[in-house]
Known about the structure:
Strand order of the largest sheet: 14-15-16-17-18
Number of domains: 4
Amino acid sequence: MQSHQPVPAKPWRDRGNSLGYIQGGTEVQADLLRQVLAQLPSDGDRLLDWLTPEGKRISARCEDLCRRVLSAPGLAERSGGDQWQASAYAQEWLENKDNAFLTAHLHARVKFFGELLSAIEDETKHADLLQVATEKYGLNWTTLSPVRDRTGWLRSLGMIELWGQRVVRTALGDSMLEVLPLCPPETARGEGEEILESANDAGAIAFLGDSMQLEQVDLRNRRTLIGYIPRGNASDNRDGDSTLTVAAALRRLVALLGDGAGLEEFGELCGNEFGISKTSFTTMMHALRHTGLIEQTSFNRFAPSEEAHRLIDEGNGQLLVVYLHARYLFFGEILHHLEKPATTSALVTLAKEMYGYAQASNGEVRLRLGFLQDAGLVERVDWQRFRVTAAGRSFVKNLTLQLPAKGETEETGAAGLQDAPSSLLSEEVIAQLRQYGNVGTESREFEEAVARAFAFLGFQAEHLGGSGRTDVLGIAQLAAKDRFRIIVDAKSSGNGQVAESSIKFDALRDHKRKHKADHVVVVGPEFAPRLKNWAVENEVILLRIDELAALLDSHSRNPMPLTELRDSFSRIDTFSDDLAERYQALERRSLLMRRIIDLAFQEAVDEDPVDDGYISVENILYALRKEFTPRPSRQEVDELMTFLSSPIVAGLESIKGRHKLIDSPRNLALRLSGLGGTFARG
């Protein structure tokens, strides 16, 4: 084994959970990788091709392969614009041809790689390694797929061999273990971490002084939405979707602003740096101003606030968390509920049900988790779950937390969320889609999960399957002129991509005719590039699992009428974009309604003998125009006021264009929830 500078291993929480697979053979991944890297740098739209050991030529779009397979383990990176290039480590491996070098690099970037090598004993099988990964290292794996991905790479690098069912370490693998810094299982599980004293703990709270003397009324009245913070282009960063962490993005934005800049100048700088549009810039400015990190110094000119630089300086992550906790709902409280790993969706449900945070969404909670991660207070356990670190446990003791709206028991927290089947149904279905959709051997389970997904959207969904029949038939049970049918073909794939040969468009046409369907949908993890054009030509919607998951998540918070879903199904080539716009409109309406109630409540509790608790539509519009982009129209507000004033809702009393709250917001929520329960039972 050649001697090279050792690769510093990332902390366990920062390593990736997945290891990409290059189509062409599990045991030849290193050789296939070499062929792919030799074709970089390359434009994202260019087709890369390679040969399998059997001489079969395989191709894939550069953007898809690099982003999905090579970027997470740090083997490829963007070089600007749409260009992809081999990373410095990958380029060095191409030159030194040392498989031990690449093994060390993958171990430094991917969870349970070198640790798997270490777990191999006499008579070890793949099932034994899965048991070690789940029981000792706390990984939330339910199939052998992630284990086989790792053993495939290790076989291709000469570190292990497969003797029948046995996994056997080679002499090269033994030598590798002598130099790899392995993560202890208890560290991977978040146990026994050393708690470091720092100025960012109790000192962070002391720095903010009086602003942290929070009463429960202050905590309940914190702002609800952080809003949009641009993060840059896609890369292998912590969230998987952005170049910068959320704290680093704030740091860069304040740096761009410098000592102060005009709005137009700052907009150009942000456009060049983050690639955002003018509309996105306006939304970002709204969010940034509410953080208090920037302030208006004159007409159309802004500058960082007095405390901004200290709050966002690298290393002051805990200071920033303390500051944001004082400004935004459900921030430090998250730490209290992550003793056991929990998903973003589970935390959203908890925020709504225990803290009355009705506007909670996956995006808002992910932002909060991003800040907490950057401060070392929270760590990602796997692709969807988070837990508190030892530093987070120590840190939260110094915070004043909002008390839950309901009595909290010993079991309350991430574990207790499992007892809310109705509110967590979408999360359960999403987990099943992702679990079975990436395992090619469990097609029936995937089909059943897809059927449950469309049932959640409001269809009468039936799992059929079998020869000559569609996998799922969905019927929108509406009036005759509105009724429509969809058929859904569920395509799971062990390598994460549905191949061109897997979709038979002639068969889909037959199924559509047989079941008298109006629309055809194919659900899968990812699709081969040429399938997308063929699908449009054949009037078939290709729906990725991630897109369906996002659809279910949005639907769980703001359900879309089936008639609107029907309209989206008619837009084959823009289906996902059209749905996203419709759900954004629904979410905006919900947020507007909640804000109207907030304003009416504030007016009601403000003892003003002149207005007697009434607020005019004009004053509501004036308040809303500062918080929503685009600004709400008079018609939007009037429609919501009419709804809230109806006898069924009985939330507002309206007299000559002026409105007064006549019941508590909590009673309104209970009344509407009760109505929803009545419909569900019906």
